[in-house]
Predict the 3D structure of the following.
Amino acid sequence: MSEVLPGLKEIEAAAERIAGVASRTPLVESPALSKLTGHEVYLKLECFQPIRVFKIRGAYNKISLLSQSRVVAASSGNHGIAVAYSSRLLSKKCTVVVPENAVVEKVDTMVDYGAEVVKAGRYSGEREAAARKIAEGTGAAFVHPYNDPDVIAGQGTCGLEIAHQLDDIDTVLVPVGGGGLISGISTALKAIRPKTRVYGVEPRSAPKLTEALKAKKVVTVPSPASIADGLIPSALGELTYEICSRNVDGSFTASEDDILRATRALIRGARIFAEPSGATPIAPLLSGPIESLGRRVVLVISGGNISQELLAKILTS
Amino acid sequence: MSEVLPGLKEIEAAAERIAGVASRTPLVESPALSKLTGHEVYLKLECFQPIRVFKIRGAYNKISLLSQSRVVAASSGNHGIAVAYSSRLLSKKCTVVVPENAVVEKVDTMVDYGAEVVKAGRYSGEREAAARKIAEGTGAAFVHPYNDPDVIAGQGTCGLEIAHQLDDIDTVLVPVGGGGLISGISTALKAIRPKTRVYGVEPRSAPKLTEALKAKKVVTVPSPASIADGLIPSALGELTYEICSRNVDGSFTASEDDILRATRALIRGARIFAEPSGATPIAPLLSGPIESLGRRVVLVISGGNISQELLAKILTS
């Protein structure tokens, strides 16, 4: 498998490809979170991407490399938005298969960007099967949300930026869904800043990375469910597992309470509007500094598509 | 006066100076606002700057050119945050004079970034007098929020980006406070894209630009007050008036109701969290398309430091 793992060269090529489409997002010190956690905290604000989430990096890199004029994706939210947005820019026809209980705001955004939206089941397996069937029937390219070297190389551009934006980083904490973002970021950082440690953070109910690192293989976790709705695939991909097993220094799991507290701390303390998945890297630090992480810590705030209902609840309580 | 007006050369120099500190913010199509207004709407998202407002561009450009090790500013909000943030990055001591009724969240942010905050009066005249007195007493440099060629050149980098990010722009709509942003943007655009029209938008109670264009001189308006609290200086500066009189194609005034409706449309429709001052350019388009503006319109969403109280109100009503 190792010959298909994307490396620094592929990430640098992706960076050229996505320039002008994805943003070089701010990496800013957060005095409020430094005070709260006892670390010197910097935030990598992927919630300031054009579509408010990092997934534009991987989706645009992947789709710009396709010869097909149609693409199809399975997604409950941010990946679908990224594929719809990128397809529009690249003048490709786009279909997104969403779950029957998808968040209305996220579906509306996909439709706004011109995607055809199809509903199928409630679980990611059903969505992916339906999407692959559409791909076979129409000749469209299926764009996987994370288990794809071009998608991972695209997400890696976030790590490339971090490496060039700040020196002397001890640790980077990255939220983990299917593992695409942490695979890309860790590949870039291990190549450029090998002393910087990379940790994943995931919901306690969806410990895909934690269990995989322990078992030394892909592990499927039963019934993942979390307010961090971007972090609940039931397993890493073969490719993201392979990369994480080489690059990632460890992982943390976070309770639902701590993920909500993290989201609240970011909104009310640092005045950054992130979604729970994006705020998850703060969760392990809420009980005070973790000495082994060192002093200077970068938290990757992966996205900001919080539902207006949850945001209202946080602002009024 | 004309020999001190900043031109394209000064703006390009500012762009190099602020690279890596201010962001090249996204310029994105907004299908939701296109539907609402009948124009082809693009948003220049200055609310995605590290400090959530464009003022980092001018403040950092200005302060990086100063020989003094201390700076002082008078501000009720965003300018003070920008000066505090830039001073911290440039290792300068910073004092901000704020009004006695300043918004707590904005003052907290200045303090977070290490500024000393002094309260003085309720009107901008009192603040500026107090700040200039501190400057004289301490040898600090006074950083004006808009009537300064280096500040204007910094704000102009926003126009430089717009010119390079999108073709065939008919009109750019810019919110107007003291006129620094529209002066910078219009200077860049008239140099690079002379066919693109630039209009200002300001609160009906603070028609500084509208009255000045009519009278062909700086006009002081009585008792400006608006929910768009970044747009209520009582007059343009001599320098910003001079530039606007040459470059700006016209202006609109917006009612308080329309500014609030614009803020709501941006949050609930396009899911962009802007402050009322930042959403103001939408206001003139709420009653349907304005033919003279042409088809493709860029709205400069200048900032996102909305109070949590107002945001909660919008999300729950």
